Amino acid sequence: MNNFKLLTQEQLKDPVVAEKIKKLAGDIIRHMMTKEAYNLFLNLEKSLAAVNLKTAFPKLAQEYERLVIQLKLTALPMLNNEETVRVIKEHFLESLEVNIFNGFKVNIDIENRLTAKLFSIPLTPRDDLRQGLQSAVQNNQQKIGALTISQWISDYNNFSHPDQRTNISPREYLLSSRQVSGLSEEDKNKLYTLFHVYDHLLLVTPVMSEEEMREIIGSPARSPVQKPMPTKPEKPALPLTAQPHPLPPLPVRPPMPPSTQPPPPLSSAYESRRTIRLRDDRYLEPIEEMSRPKQTEPRIEGNVVDLKSR
Fold first, then answer.
1. CB 125, CB 81: distance < 8 Å
2. Buried (b) or exposed (e) across 173-201, using 16+ Cβ within 10 A?
3. Kind of pairing, strands 304-306 and 104-106?
4. How many CB atoms lie within 10 A of CB 43?
5. Angle at 232 between CA 226 and CA 236, to 5 degrees
6. Residues linked to residue 143 through DSSP beta bridges, in sequence order
7. Residue pLDDT, tens place only, 69-104
8. What's the pLDDT tens digit per position in 115-146?
């Protein structure tokens, strides 16, 4: 959207246009669409800077500025490191608040956004960014209840040393601290998220497996405002009876009728050779069989072998 024309003052103050922008921003924030959030906040920020909306419409200008902050927090993985640190230092509280968009309660998953940002860069610059974000939270002057975020972090560090923290440390603090007793449930939930993100992402440079990171970041959901690409309509299939045969059928030849004529006579040459051979066979001398000698069988009488012939 950063390639679109900037919005004019007339467009920004138009209630119909303002409602469309708010609806679009709500869908983008709700589905954590990083690129779309970046493009929209960039366009709104430049449009607001080009017109003097605060003087004539201060309330409307404030709503647009709040929308820009929420879009920036959603687009956190695409911001440069300096801008990321500045947004967390000045607007971390906005990521903990619940907003109503199009009838839906929407809050920004700041753990998801920070994880995506930290793991978008190599380990060494990741450690530098982590330290900058830690300092940004420790110096944040936005208030939850009567104390600033900076004061809450300081009191939390006094309650338990960072090296001795466990997963239940935020709960233990919320149940034990006197400062928390007068807070609403909404503010207690904000503090829990604040301490959880601080412990897991900002105290030590995170190193996660791909599966652990996928559990936090997840896969980006598709926005309902995105329309699927149009597809060409498929041609209806013709019925089988209407489809022509690829080749014409071959003609069927009738069977040959049986022949009634007698077979042709043998040739005279073949007949003469046959006659001569038959005649030659008559004059061949017969072959006499040679008489075979009579065989004698041995006859055993006692120990004497008699070879007399029978």
1. yes
2. bbeebebbeebeeeeeebbbbbbbbbbbb
3. unpaired
4. 20
5. 135
6. 148
7. 999 999 999 999 999 999 999 999 999 998 877 677
8. 999 999 998 899 999 999 999 999 999 999 99
Q: How many residues does the chain have?
A: 310
Residue entry with tokens 């939390």: 156
pLDDT-derived band at 238 (thresholds 50, 70, 90) equals very low
- The encoded tokens of residue 125 equal 């610059």
CA geometry: angle 123, 129, 132, nearest 5 deg: 150
Quote the tokens at residue 219: 């896969």
pTM for the structure as a whole: 0.66
As a whole number of angstroms, the distance between CA 221 and CA 50 comes to 33
Q: Determine if residue 265 is left, alpha or beta; phi over 0 gives left, psi from -120 to 50 gives alpha, anything else beta.
A: beta
Tokens, residue 259: 């022949």
Return the DSSP state at 242: G
Tokens standing for residue 108: 């920004």
- Which tokens belong to 197? 């993100």
211, 125, 2, 60 alpha-carbon torsion, rounded to 10°: 90
Residue type, 226: Q
Take residue 145 and report the two structure tokens written for it: 């209840």
Cβ contacts of residue 207 below 8 Å, gap of 6+? Answer: 123
DSSP code of residue 283: T
Determine contact, residues 189/110, Cβ cutoff 8 Å. Answer: no
Q: What are phi and psi of 296, to 5 degrees?
A: -100, 140
